[in-house]
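Here we describe the complex-level prediction in full. Unlike the single-chain runs in Section 2.1, the two entities below were treated as one system.
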Amino acid sequence: MLAALWIIVTATFFLMHSIPGDPFLGDKVTEAIRQNMLRKYGLDKPLWEQYVIYLGNLLRGDFGTSLKMLHRSVNDMIRDGFPVSALLGLEALAYAVTIGLVLGTLAGFRHNTWLDYLAMFVALIGISVPGFIMGGLMQYVIGLKLGWLPIARWEGFRYTIMPAAALGLGTLAVMARMMRTSVLEVTNQDYIKTAKAKGLSQREIVFRHILRNAILPIVTILGPLTAGIVTGSFVIELIFGIPGLGKYYVQSIFNRDYTLILGTTIFYAVLLVFLNFLVDVAYGIVDPRIRLMRSRE
Amino acid sequence: MRRVLVVLVAAVVLATMSVGLVSAAKPLPKLVLLSGDSQIARLYAQGVQEMIRKNLGLPLEIEAVDFKTRLQKMRNKDFQIVFAGWGADYDDPMTFLDMWITDGPFNDVMWSNSSYDKLIQVAKTSSDEKVRMDAMAKAEKILIGETPIAPLYWPAWNFVEHPYVKNVIRKTVGSDFEWKWAYTEGRPGGDKDQFLRMNFGEEPPDLDPATSTDQVSFWVINATYEGLARKNAEMKILQGSGLAESWTVSKDRKVYTFKLRDAKWSDGQPVTAYDFEFGWKRAIDPRTASQYAYMMYVLKNAEKVNGMEVPDDKDAKKAEKNKAIDDALATVGVKALDAKTLRVELEAATPFFLDLITFITYMPSPKHMVEKLGDEYASEVDKMVACGPFKVTKWQHEYKITLEKNPAYWDAKSVKLQRIEADMIKDIATPLNMFDAGELDLVGVPGTYIEQYRNKGMRTIAEATAWYLEFNCKHEIFKNAKVRRAFSLALDRQAYVDYVLKNGSLPATSLVPPTIHGKDGVSFHDVYVGDLLPKKADIKLAKQLLAEGLAELGYAMP
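The structure predicted for the assembly as a whole is:
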């Protein structure tokens, strides 16, 4: 795991330095002053030396100072932004997973009925309409025209509803479609027939056998999905004026803000690894055959 | 019959010769226009591409790259034509002209003209306003004539405000918003609570006046600090308008002596001449690495000191080099004679120096705070103080900043607003929705929304900025002035602003925008320069110049 992180850090470090430009290049910065700034922030040193220094700081948990916001440390920026993004992401995830799974399950069991078509229509919209379009539409209709919810800002629960809905829409659609396919597949398995032949009640078949098996592939994608959604969405945070982490991933590259690029990338990587670990644990709960502990016994 | 034969033979000979000429000429290389990669930048570049195709019959490729890549390519001189812009730093034509001198730090086109250099030198050293203006007008004529750059348009800024918003002044040069005299009258819900809600669009990256460089930070600093003078609503600089009560100027116009008024920082400490000396020298000190240090170069020895070598940690002569910088800083032309008197000495008589003292880099630094906090000064609300009409009372990073009236400000009685709340929403559509819903009081209208707001009281303000095409004067084709001029004349500037920009921008018929003042407050462009370029394309002349230029270079006309 540490090796993976080290590779990520190294690759990111050298890749970002290969992009043309640097943090202090500006349309009104003379070459002499730029050199002065590069020196002040240690960017005039040979690249390998900067790399060694960075790794040293990283081991102490120090991401350094942002090279765009010269007064702010990357640690502070992540500490301030992540809880906001995480809250928004978890809310989006919560409703995407619940509604998505319910829709997908219903569609799976009521295969080729109007219920199935309706659920898949919703899923189609969710997949084909990007979150920022849906967000903008909601802002205009629900926020401006109807005045039910605030258009933007981040002041309390009411402010989270629209962005979370817009953010979760795509995931909801993926969930619904995957769950439907999965349910259909499991329903045709031999062991379901066996269960029926044994004379188990319909309820028991559905909950103990079908759903439990059908949900496995969903759990698999839940890890990366969660990491993606809780580290913030650039566009959704942008249009709703939410002070999350999402925009840093894009802006840091645009600004050649090296420390922020590395900080956010490493943070994301660590989170991804951690969540994948959680998924493995969750696997064991859903499917005892792949329980971690047992394999060691 | 014989005559016919002669004519025929002559025709054949001529035709053969011309074919020979054509085949001897080199084919034109691929022509590339370097531009930004935002949707709007691409659109603007395509407008140029189309005019060159239509009016000169030349294919022009667009290379769209991101902001930093474009700048890096410009600094590396790795371009043929690049779309670029420049905004005024101060209200004098010089801010647009001195960058084109030979080897000037921003002269990416590598153009060089000794007459031009001389005229700029005259304008920089003369204290006679008339002589200066004439020299600069002459210089601009040379510049536009030789066409290392082809001015295209002078942009405008569009905004809407609710009718109850009064007296928010938008300055065309420098720090833009001026809220000192703003108030509301007739706000639904009453005017008892005097406040203003704006959208800044982004986090102010740096609220330390000595190092700050960006627009949003400038808005906040202009509201929370005050220099020796403050521009009034008519953009005039009057004695007693800022922290200096009055000033005197020496005969050679090189020495200014400012008398400071009784003023306090928001923490109760007095604002002294020492704070000004300290702040200015901090910006000049190469160890501060302030990007806008060049704004201080009019001060005696400032440029020299700013260019001194900064030792790094491992330098064996570190102490020595640091001492050399300290010693040199003492020779810079700014000195507090006592707490109330500031003496400023300039390199040369600089008529726009009084405009500079309203610029952000010329604000005082609270010595008592900065010496304690160092680089951390102005990083959080409790790590900064104010000496202007407002002070920062809440700073929710990347989200919202709140300014409140500063009761310690010397002219607090003129300040009616109690509070300014500013969001940092980067999206362009959201703030407009919020404005329509009454959640914002004033909002900028970006290009794509202009038609929607045109009849809703939208106002247009000309900016002190110019956008132009830069030609690489060392490029095999664009080293020829006739070719460059052909490109410039092929631009239909009026059609471009009417049909491509559609945002109230003006066709640039010279470089220095009409918003920049010459002597006695008249427009430099209107009075001293006039239209050096036609508003419509001069296709005939452009084609002729192109043909001549290419022939001189030995290239085939396509």
